[in-house]
Structures are given as structure tokens and as C-alpha cells.
Amino acid sequence: MSQSNTSHSCQERMAERYTPRCLQKSAAPIEADAFHDTFLPDPSAVARMRDSTAAFLRRFGLTGPVASSVVLVVSELVTNAITHGHGEVGLAIRVADGTISVSVTDENTAPAVLKEAGPNDLSGRGMALVEAYSDRWGSNGEETWCEFRNAGIAA
User: Fold this and answer.
1) Structure pTM?
2) How many CA atoms lie within 13 A of 130 on its CB side?
3) Residue of 48, 39, 120, 123 lying closest to 82 (CA atoms)
4) Contact present, 91 and 74 (Cβ < 8 Å)
5) Mind listing the pLDDT tens digit for each residue in 71-130?
6) Are 148 and 69 in contact, with CB atoms under 8 Å apart?
7) Does the keyword Kinase apply (predicted)?
8) Which residues pair with 100 in a beta bridge?
9) How many of the other CB atoms lie within 10 Å of CB of 149?
10) Considering only CA atoms, which of 129, 139, 119, 28 is closest in space to residue 74?
11) Residues 120/132, Cβ–Cβ less than 8 Å
């Protein structure tokens, strides 16, 4: 019986760890226009971050093509950080003045780079998708970011 309680306690801690901060109950005030989460570099986190991003954007009534583009780019940036980064991965999304800003961080100091993948390459297209779908993007190593301007969200 004690083993079950210990396991349950561990599961509760893991659930809390992977619950996005905008959904966690906390004594600290939560910014209504921002979403932040930090997670271990586990491939299963990609789907959680896509779902969390879509839920966050729905709070602004954004469900169409722009929301789909933001979710796709978040998926690519998070996958890139998990695949090529080091340490914990952070995702931050902010809505301000009609612009959606996305930032993904990890502890790798090498910046994300745009590559030209060949037709038979299984990977290497992520940053090309970020460039194609966002209005601007950049990487300084530990942070890769992008912006979606005039995203159809009231300022």
C-alpha cells in the first residue's frame, strides 16, 4: 500500500511539473497575455506544447489559419530544442499589440540555423517552416524566437 501512495505522490509531482503555468493554480498572479512553461527535453512534450499553445490562443478567439501556423511553429521550435538543445526547454508565448511572440529556450549556445534539406532527408526543414510561417525570427543560441504580426488579435 505504501508503494502505491509513493507512486501516486510521484505522479502528482510529475503532473504538476508538466502542467503549463497558465493552467496551474498559484499564489503568484498570472499574466493574461502570456503563457510560460519549462519542461524536460522529452519528445512527448511536443504534443503537450502544441495543445497548450492552441488552448492559449483560443482564449483570444484565435482558431483559424494564424493559430494553426503558430501551433506548427511552436511544434518545430520545441522539437528543435529537444533534438539539438541541452537541459530544460522553455516555451513562452506573448500576445501584445496584435502580435504573437514565441520564444523557445534551452542551454545550447549554438544558434538555430536555416538549412536546405534534400528531398530524401528525414529532417532539416523545421527552421524553414518557422521562416515561411512567421513574419520574422531569430536565434542567439539559447533562445530562438519568432513573431506573427497583425495576427487578428485585438490590441
Assistant:
1) 0.77
2) 28
3) 39
4) yes
5) 999 999 999 999 999 999 999 999 998 899 999 999 999 999 888 877 876 776 889 999
6) yes
7) yes
8) 95, 148
9) 12
10) 129
11) no
